[in-house]
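Marked as duplicate of an earlier ticket. Keeping the data here for the record.
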Amino acid sequence: MALAERRGPVTSHPVSGAVWPAVVIAAGAIVGAAALVVTFSLGGLRALPTFNACANATSSLMLATGFVLIRRGHRQGHLTAMGLGLTAGSLFLVSYLFYHFHAGSVRFTGQGLVRTVYFSILISHTVLAALTLPLVIFVVWQAARGRFDRHRRVARWTLPMWFYVSVTGVLVYMMLYVWFPS
C-alpha cells in the first residue's frame, strides 16, 4: 500500500498544479528581498548578520514544515514549504557572500572550552554547507523534472544535512555576535 493511501487522500489547494506554490514562493522571494534591502538601508553592513540568521531560521522552519507535510501526504504544502525554505536559503547565501566580501571575516572572542565547541560547530557547518549546496540543486532539479524516485532517494540525505547547516548557522551567529561579540 502506498504511503498516501495509508495516510488518506493527498490534499492540495484548489488552484491546480504548481501555480499556488509558485505564487507563494515568488511572494516569499519578494518579501525576503525587500526585507534584505530595508535591513541593509537601515543598518548598513552591520545589520546583515542578523538578517542572515533570520533567513537561516526561516529556512530551518520551512524545511521542518516541508518534511512534516510530505510525511502526511500533502504534496502541494510540501512544495510550498520547501520552495520557501529554498528561497530563504538563497537570500541567506547572497546576503552572506555580500557581507563577507565587504566585511571580511569576524574573529570569535570566546575562550577555553567554548572556543573548541564553536570551532567544532563552525567546521562541521562549513563542510556540510559546501556538500549540501550541490545536493540541494540536484534534489530540486529532480523534483522539477518529475523524477520523484531520484528526488526521494537523495533528499533523504540532503534534508538532514541542510537542516543541520541552517540550524548551526543560527547557532554560529548567536555565538559570534550575541554571546561572545567582538
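See parent ticket for discussion. The longest helix spans residues 113-144.
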